[in-house]
Specification:
Length: 421
């Protein structure tokens, strides 16, 4: 059984083909610059050299066609025909309150996804285009939606409601939703295994730190709070997003600079965060290198990020009323030892004793590592995320009729016998 996972962005389509029987990735890749010209595909197969092909993709339908052509190519492909694909899993960024778990896509589900696309105008429209394009190319294959927001639908009302006019929620759905759900799900389940406990007996803080950054407070195995809100703009400092700021600032700057709502939104999403502070960088490796060479703005960016991360750990620790572990994941979380050190230093008083040598030697996307001392009351792990595996297991379970929801379904990676390939 081969499962194709698709992640359609506004100008890109990521894909992964997974052999369920062998439990391994057959191929993965990305089509870049979809709709904007000079598009191309990067195709990776284990044991082969990476393949790149220039191919104009004016829309997502052509991009899906290019993926199919590449997967079945005589020279670069890994399958003979698309009939070998049993199902397609689609990442959908926003499911609103309508979806609390992954679901088979039918006309009603697709209409419901369209109904909430105003909540994620940058993300859901390309997700929808990708679903429709894949359905057109693979009309006889089941298509399944996996939602970024589903994992956080367990939050209590006091965590997801904003202190705003009730009409805004009633009419427009304004509330906290949260994102990166599949990542938080995966690493929290893995952390429970490393702790030797059932997920329902664990209180964990998960910190997904990449270009986008979000954190989740997980109590007894379910999300009770998360840092991103109505949109992915709220929360931690990110590569180009501002995160938490005084809400009066946008109006103030719009008045002073004569900016439109669209312009200020673009600045807060694409020109703020680490880029805004440093004036030139989003990649933390560049920031660290420049800081070591004496760049004061880069040093400030590192200090601000570490400070904000520490604040989230403290606030979530208070919410959880007892903490078993903190988990760092995603690109920066897995590779950025300095960011982790800044976030954790001085937290011995709450029970976190960082092993600095181990932390500094932990820079990998492949290994799960304990970076606190053996006697640390609260453990801190670096766990590489695997969102595609969550996609795949949800898809297979739905096909087999064994799926319930992420709270009760038994994932393979939540078992102590699981071995990451």
């Amino acid at each position: 059984m081969d499962i194709l996972a698709l992640n359609c962005g506004s100008s890109s389509v990521k894909y992964q083909l997974f052999d369920w029987k062998k439990k391994e990735v057959i191929a993965k890749g990305m089509v870049e610059r979809v709709t904007i010209g000079d598009s191309y595909i990067i195709h990776e197969v284990p044991g082969r050299e990476t393949y790149r092909e220039e191919y104009e993709c004016p829309d997502h339908k052509v991009a899906i066609h290019l993926i199919i052509k590449t997967l079945t190519s005589k020279d670069e492909g890994v399958i003979e025909t698309m009939d070998q694909i049993s199902a397609v899993g689609h990442r959908v960024v926003h499911g609103g309150e309508k979806f609390i778990c992954s679901v088979m896509i039918d006309d009603a589900v697709l209409d419901a996804i369209k109904d909430v696309q105003h909540l994620a105008p940058l993300h859901n429209p390309p997700n929808i285009l990708g679903i429709e394009a894949a359905q057109a190319s693979l009309p006889n294959v089941p298509h399944i939606a996996i939602f970024d927001t589903a994992f956080h639908q367990t939050m209590p009302q006091q965590a997801y409601m904003y202190p705003l006019p009730q009409d805004w929620y009633d009419k427009h759905g304004v509330r906290r939703y949260g994102f990166h759900g599949t990542s938080h799900l995966y690493v929290s389940k893995r952390a429970s295994v490393l702790l030797g406990k059932d997920p329902k007996d664990c209180n964990i803080i998960t910190m997904h730190i990449g270009n986008g950054v979000s954190h989740s407070a997980i109590k007894n195995g379910v999300s009770v709070d998360t840092s991103m809100g109505l949109t992915p703009l709220e929360g931690a400092v990110m590569g180009t997003r501002c995160g938490d700021i005084d809400p009066a600032i946008p109006g103030f700057i719009m008045d002073r600079e004569g900016l439109t709502p669209k312009e200020i939104d673009g600045i807060l999403n694409k020109k703020s965060g680490i880029l805004g502070i440093t004036g030139q960088y989003t990649d933390r490796r560049d920031v660290i290198e420049a800081a070591e060479e004496g760049d004061e703005r880069c040093q400030l960016a590192l200090d601000i990020e570490g400070y904000r991360l520490k604040k989230y750990i403290g606030s979530y620790c208070a919410i959880l009323g007892g903490l078993d572990a903190v988990v760092f994941t995603a690109g920066v979380g897995e590779m950025g030892w300095l960011i982790r050190e800044k976030a954790l230093e001085g937290l011995e008083h709450i029970g976190i004793k960082l092993d600095k040598d181990v932390n500094r030697n932990t820079m990998t996307r492949k290994r799960e590592t304990l970076i606190t001392t053996e006697d640390s009351p609260i453990k801190v792990f670096v766990i590489p995320t695997d969102e595609e595996l969550v996609f795949t297991e949800d898809v297979v379970a739905i096909l087999e009729g064994t799926y319930t929801d992420h709270m009760n379904f038994k994932y393979s990676f939540a078992d102590s016998s699981f071995v990451r390939k």
